[in-house]
Structure to design on (345 residues):
């Protein structure tokens, strides 16, 4: 079965990101497919590569990155949610004349169409929010 | 049939609101702070769901982290994340409350 | 999937859930039949006469009037939620269908997928 996982909560603000990450791992362990993980609302903060939590706490950005790289997942962040929260890849940073971007692959900035496409084409949608 | 997920303690109106939307054949999973809903003495809302034979689950990692392992309503079933995934495949869609 | 239900549960301005939820509804309407359910304080998004100038917040609620042009015709709310908030449909910028508890549960069952905000 194909899953769309929607993450609406920011890391270290609510438990939503951590719950979604555990759920995503369990989806794969159970032999199902992750169609896409879509970060919306404060969920886009998960894409911030500058997250630097203390070493004895889970680094959610790194956790998502590893999960995606090891399993070839799409981590899509909503462009409108991201830009207004200062979450920009190098292309967007240059476009808006900012000194640096903080988003790199496997996180991809894209539009809300990716959320709708996911709900249409995945068999199940699971939303995690604050 | 709907998998209802609830992530707020009983102090929040989410539990009462969600209960009105749970139909026969649906099930409820309490996650994050939602697990506190299964730890109170006086949750008539939760008890009514159980009387209606609505399956109610608690995510074990959330229960353990909050020190609630021996404080839950015994009619509530503990499951892990893989069990959560299985529930979501058995129901046709999910609705988040919180 | 044939029909997608968006659920708006937050009042406007206190968070961005409403505004970003509406953005998702407008995006969804381009791809699929969409309905919107306003629950609890979410109904406050539709309250008339929101004056956001002093706050410097975006009055996104006026965009609900455009939903009809996007082909989103199915708007629902709870009659009890309106009553509890001392509101009538005359106080709202668009007119959702008022439903009782049984009808509300039926709306959730009727749609193929649900997106919560």
């Amino acid at each position: 079965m194909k899953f769309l996982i929607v993450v609406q909560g920011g890391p270290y603000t609510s438990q939503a990101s951590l719950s979604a990450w555990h759920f995503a791992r369990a989806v794969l362990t159970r032999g199902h497919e992750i169609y896409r993980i879509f970060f919306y609302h404060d969920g886009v903060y998960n894409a911030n590569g500058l997250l630097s939590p203390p070493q004895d706490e889970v680094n959610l950005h790194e956790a998502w990155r590893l999960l995606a790289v090891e399993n070839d997942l799409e981590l899509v962040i909503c462009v409108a949610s991201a830009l207004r929260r200062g979450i920009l890849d190098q292309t967007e940073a240059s476009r808006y004349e900012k000194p640096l971007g903080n988003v790199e692959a496997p996180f991809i900035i894209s539009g809300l169409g990716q959320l709708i496409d996911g709900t249409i084409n995945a068999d199940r949608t699971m939303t995690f929010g604050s | 049939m709907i998998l209802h997920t609830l992530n707020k303690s009983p102090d929040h109106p989410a539990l009462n609101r969600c209960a009105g939307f749970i139909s026969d054949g649906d099930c409820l999973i309490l996650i994050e702070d939602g697990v506190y809903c299964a730890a109170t003495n006086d949750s008539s809302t939760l008890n009514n769901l159980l009387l209606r034979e609505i399956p109610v689950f608690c995510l074990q990692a959330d229960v353990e982290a909050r020190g609630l392992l021996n404080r839950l309503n015994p009619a509530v079933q503990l499951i892990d994340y893989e069990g959560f995934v299985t529930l979501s495949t058995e129901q046709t869609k999910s609705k988040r409350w919180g | 999937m044939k029909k997608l239900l968006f659920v708006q549960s937050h009042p406007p301005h206190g968070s961005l859930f409403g505004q970003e939820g509406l953005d998702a509804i407008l995006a969804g309407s381009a791809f699929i039949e969409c309905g919107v359910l306003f629950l609890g304080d979410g109904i406050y998004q539709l309250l008339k006469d929101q004056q956001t100038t002093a706050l410097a917040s975006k009055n996104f609620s006026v965009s609900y009037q455009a939903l009809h042009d996007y082909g989103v015709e199915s708007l629902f709310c709870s009659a009890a939620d309106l009553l509890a908030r001392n509101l009538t449909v005359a106080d709202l910028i668009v007119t959702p269908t008022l439903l009782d508890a049984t009808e509300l549960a039926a709306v959730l069952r009727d749609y193929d997928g649900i997106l919560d905000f």
In short: Residues 2-128 of chain A form a domain with the Hypothetical Protein Ychn; Chain: A, fold (CATH 3.40.1260.10). Chain A has one domain: 2-128. The CA atoms of residues 63 and 76 of chain A lie 15 Å apart. The helical segments of chain A are 16-29, 60-71, 79-84, 90-95, 113-121.
